[in-house]
């Protein structure tokens, strides 16, 4: 025993214990390289962690799992990071940090997990996504901190996807992102999902990644947040789907060699994306003027693909786009009919069409009279509890202006101020407003279509106490 531990037997015992744990952990790691013993080795690693859970042991586990000399590409090593997070939870404190901080430890472990994306192991992305979700669930103290979650879990994956140099790492990062967004939606982290939604859509448009999982991620976002974030990039998104569906069909030689069958997963995901877009875009069909024809042509061609799943997905998407085109045609027809019906009409007739009222003059007079009653009673009414206007058998006191309800003649006069007999200055403002409104409509029509009346003096201009009209 050295002099350092001679007077402190407890420290000597801890050092000896750590050495024994290290030997056991190394032996269990060695068993992972043999397919016949990897399950036994993985269970031994888990038992060691469950038995010894101190901070010194955590430092030992992390150093052995990250050791470049004995490092293995087995997925069990990656899964051990998630198991450590599941066991230690918020006590995942690496003694190397002064003072120990769970966020620093999480960042260090996540960086080690991301380094496995460059390997050629097929199922390594599943192990990476599983461990990252365990870390997010158990070791992130404030999940409402959107920028913290983005810095640890989103930005590294987005960097691999946007780079595009390493296609293997790009596809694996897209797979992990798909699993991460799925977890957020399933576990009701809607604020985080809404925060990442516009970032994912912009990344999908700008990157060259055509991974099926990346397209599925956009489908999840579309179902969750709707079409509002897709409006800006709708043409780019549709153009990318057309490119995906035409992969492997650029020449006759490629058709013969059946190169197109290797993209069947991407094509199925693209068809699902198009089908969901057709459903969501029914509320805003004007966004796709002139573009829906190209989508329909590509889907019809994809229905004859060699892979049955691609054919089925293309048929489903085409059916949804047929429904969308019907709605689009109906809306365009209604627009044409409305524009045709409005041509050459007077303002009162336009009001009838747009408001659905049978007698717009009476409605406008009623609205004016109701406002006049409010003004009179706000100054001091002569009779309380006024009855509503427009109902038979009921009347109200309006002072000196009550004679306007005596006959339809006066009512019609005040519906058309240019024909009215002026009975007092109480209705001068109404005459002016109505005169200016009709002149404004006709002037606007003249400026747009060069038809009707236009030019001359300003409509409704006052001359003394009278109102001048020009028609």
Automatic annotation (TrEMBL):
Coiled coil location: none
Species whose genome carries this gene: Euplotes crassus
Record lineage: Eukaryota, Sar, Alveolata, Ciliophora, Intramacronucleata
Pfam families to which the protein is assigned, alphabetical: TOR1L1_N (PF24714)
Protein name per Swiss-Prot or TrEMBL: TORTIFOLIA1/SINE1-2 N-terminal domain-containing protein
Extent of Polar residues compositional bias: 397-409
Region (Disordered), start-end ranges: 378-409
Domain TORTIFOLIA1/SINE1-2 N-terminal: 20-313
SUPFAM superfamilies: ARM repeat (SSF48371)
């Amino acid at each position: 025993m050295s002099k350092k531990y001679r007077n402190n037997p407890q420290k000597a015992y801890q050092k000896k214990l750590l050495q024994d744990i290290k030997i056991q952990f190394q032996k269990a790691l060695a068993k992972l390289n043999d397919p016949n013993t990897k399950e036994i080795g993985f269970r031994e690693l888990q038992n060691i962690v469950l038995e010894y859970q101190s901070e010194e042991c955590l430092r030992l586990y992390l150093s052995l799992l990250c050791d470049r000399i004995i490092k293995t590409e087995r997925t069990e090593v990656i899964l051990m990071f998630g198991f450590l997070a599941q066991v230690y939870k918020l006590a995942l404190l690496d003694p190397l940090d002064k003072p120990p901080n769970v966020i620093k430890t999480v960042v260090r472990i996540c960086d080690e997990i991301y380094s496995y994306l460059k390997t050629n192991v097929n199922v390594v992305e599943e192990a990476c996504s599983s461990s990252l979700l365990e870390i997010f669930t158990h070791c992130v103290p404030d999940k409402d901190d959107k920028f913290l979650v983005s810095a640890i879990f989103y930005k590294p994956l987005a960097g691999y996807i946007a780079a595009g140099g390493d296609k293997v790492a790009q596809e694996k990062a897209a797979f992990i992102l798909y699993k991460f967004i799925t977890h957020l939606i399933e576990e009701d982290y809607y604020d985080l999902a809404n925060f990442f939604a516009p970032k994912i859509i912009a990344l999908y448009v700008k990157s060259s990644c055509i991974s099926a999982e990346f397209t599925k991620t956009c489908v999840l976002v579309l179902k969750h947040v709707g079409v509002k974030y897709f409006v800006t990039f709708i043409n780019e998104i549709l153009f990318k789907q057309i490119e995906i569906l035409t992969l492997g069909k650029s020449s006759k030689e490629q058709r013969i060699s059946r190169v197109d069958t290797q993209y069947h997963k991407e094509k199925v995901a693209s068809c699902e994306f198009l089908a969901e877009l057709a459903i969501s875009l029914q509320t805003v069909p004007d966004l796709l003027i002139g573009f829906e024809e190209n989508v329909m042509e590509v889907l019809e061609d994809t229905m004859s693909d060699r892979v049955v799943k691609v054919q089925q997905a293309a048929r489903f998407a085409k059916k949804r786009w047929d429904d969308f085109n019907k709605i689009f045609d109906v809306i365009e027809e209604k627009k044409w009919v409305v524009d045709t019906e409005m041509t050459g009409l007077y303002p009162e007739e336009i009001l009838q069409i747009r408001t659905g009222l049978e007698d717009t003059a009476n409605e406008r007079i009623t609205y004016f009279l109701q406002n006049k009653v409010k003004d009179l009673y706000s100054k001091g009414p002569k009779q309380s509890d006024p009855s509503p206007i427009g109902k038979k058998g009921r009347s109200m006191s309006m002072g000196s202006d009550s004679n306007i309800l005596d006959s339809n003649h006066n009512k019609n006069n005040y519906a058309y101020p240019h024909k009215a007999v002026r009975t007092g200055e109480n209705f001068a403002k109404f005459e002016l407003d109505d005169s200016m409104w009709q002149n404004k409509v006709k002037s606007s029509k003249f400026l747009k279509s060069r038809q009707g009346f236009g030019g001359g003096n300003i409509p409704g201009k006052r001359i003394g106490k009278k109102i001048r009209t020009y028609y």
